[in-house]
Each structure stands twice: as structure tokens, then as C-alpha cells.
Amino acid sequence: MSIVTPAARAEGQRLFGAFQTWGAAPVEAAVLQPAGTLLDLYGEDIRARAYVTQDPVQGEMMLRPDFTVPVVQAHMAGGADPARYCYLGEVFRKQEQGAERASEYLQVGYEVFDRDQPLRADAEVFALFARMLAGKGLRAATGDIGILIAAVRGLPTSDTRKAALMRHLWRPVRFRSLLERFAGRAPLPKGRAALLARMKAGDPVESPAPQIGLRSRAEIETRLARLAEDSATPAIPADVVDALEALVGVADKAPAALSAMRGIAAVMPWITPSLDTFEQRLTVLAAHGVDVAGLDFEASYGRTTLEYYDGFVFGFFAETRPDLPPVASGGRYDALTQVLGQGRSIPAVGGVIRPALLVELEGGQ
User: Fold this and answer.
1) What digits encode the pLDDT tens for the residues 264-275?
2) How many domains does the chain have?
3) 333 annotated as a binding-site residue
């Protein structure tokens, strides 16, 4: 844990006030959040990054790992449309052993809910952050998770395989491993290969030992049937796999990146609508004063953050301090509003700034 310094608190208040001058309504969120909601959204992975406690009345709770989820919940319960919110407060994240990063730090954020003009909202948030962070020596990086999502959803393969790739889109190593296996370029795990061989030969896979564990016999049989179905699924064509791997590796200035992805779309035409949206966003960003010709774009940017981003993503980094996390980051999370809105949804985008990092970079205390 760390204590928020007076300098960081003052910087946070300055940014918080600036967001309010841009029309954002200040909101608060409880420090203790229901763990069930976060686990439903992110799975058990979030448990490794959050502080979990047990409340005798409310059950399992987590120290607030971010503000976005509670802000979305509050908005979907009855917020205006469009709406802008801002917040300031501590968030809590576990750090790896030996890491020097703080596990408790101040976060100030800005969120926009706009059904009618989502591209303008993307540009508004990014341009506002760029102006507020100008002169701080930071490099901006952008990406678009929506392009990668479209690429996976359009693959000529089974829904089961596409679902598996989507689950691991935010885990690049596992994603590539699965893609190589689905392309027939990597062998099956030995245990699975042996099991499938027994099933193909008609050998029984049951054991005389008593059944233990949480899975029922029906669930096990369903799983075996899915493994057999997957083993019979044709490999994803090599040219498509090569194109997807090339897409994941695109990193250039935004106009050049768009040109490269247009070339890849010759093999993966189903990503064209997402590229059209990306091109339109660049036009809107330029209208908001952003130098898109000098804007860095990385197709894989945002794949190792929380999994609710599903469109435009961005971050601001101190290039002279590669040991530091992003000073600011954000993105679009439309699908999250549908999950938390119980079927209702609204396009939403936002971002956060870490005031303590700004103070540290400026030599403050």
C-alpha cells in the first residue's frame, strides 16, 4: 500500500475541477464493491489483481479496482442521455512481488455516454486528455480492439473456436497458441491427443474410480462431445491465419497503419466496416485538433488491460520512464453497458489519469 501525497491530491483536485468545467457531473463510488459483479465480468482473473474481503452481511467484497464499473451501474440505473461524469478517488490493485508500483493510488477520470455520436465522444475524450497532458513529455498511443474483435468473429471456423479465441483475446500468448493450433501448425496437448485417440478407437474413457469434482456426468459427456467435434473441425486457412497475425502486429502512424490494414482486408474482407469506422474516427479526431498524421497506432494496444474495452483505446506514456505504467489510459466499452444494463445499452467511452505519476515526472513529492 502507499499513502497519497498532498501534491498528488492537489494535482488530482486540479484535474477533477478541469473535468467539471467541461460539463462532467462529479460522482462518487463506494470503496467496497460487490465481488460477484466483478467476477461475473472478468472471471477469476480479477481475484489475483484485487483485494478481496468478506462482509458478514454483503458477502464477498472487493476494494475498488477501478471506477468504471460502478459509474456504468449508476448511469444505467437512470442517468441522462447523453451524460458526462468525472470522479476522483483511490483504487486498489495488487502488484507482482518485487514490483515498485503502488498498490493504492489516486485516479481521476472522465466518462461520456452518448448514443447518437460515439465517434465524436471518442475524439472528445482523447482530445481533452491530450490538451490536459500537453507539455508533460508524454507519448500518446492508440488502438482499436473493435478491429481485432471483428477479425476473430469473421474467421471461417466454428463458433466454438471463435468463442475460445475471443475469451483469450486479452491474453496474447494464449491467443497465439490457440490460433496456431486451430491452424494445424501446433500439436494438440498430449493428454487431449491421447483422449481423442481413445475415443476414435472406441475405447471407453470411463474410470472405475469413484467420480469426484464439481462436474456432473452430463457435463463431462458434453465436454467430450465438444472435443470430438472440435477435432473434426477443418483448420483455419493458412492465408487467413497469416493475415490475422499480420493484423495483430500492425504498429505505425495512424494513416500508415490504416493503409496496412486495408491491405490485410484483401484476405479478411469482414474487417472492412471496422476499418471504415477507424478512418471516420481519424477524420473526427483531426476536427478536434489532433495531429492524426503523427498519432501512433498499435493494433494490439489495450490487449493486456481490463477486458471491458471493445473499441477505441488510448494511453499516454512517459518515454523517459519505461518503468512507469501509463500516466493516462482509456477507451470505449459499449458491451459493458449492455451487461450492466441488463439488456439496455448505450455507447460509452472514458479515461483515467494517475495524478501521482504526473507529480513524480515533474519532480514533486
Assistant:
1) 999 999 999 999
2) 1
3) no
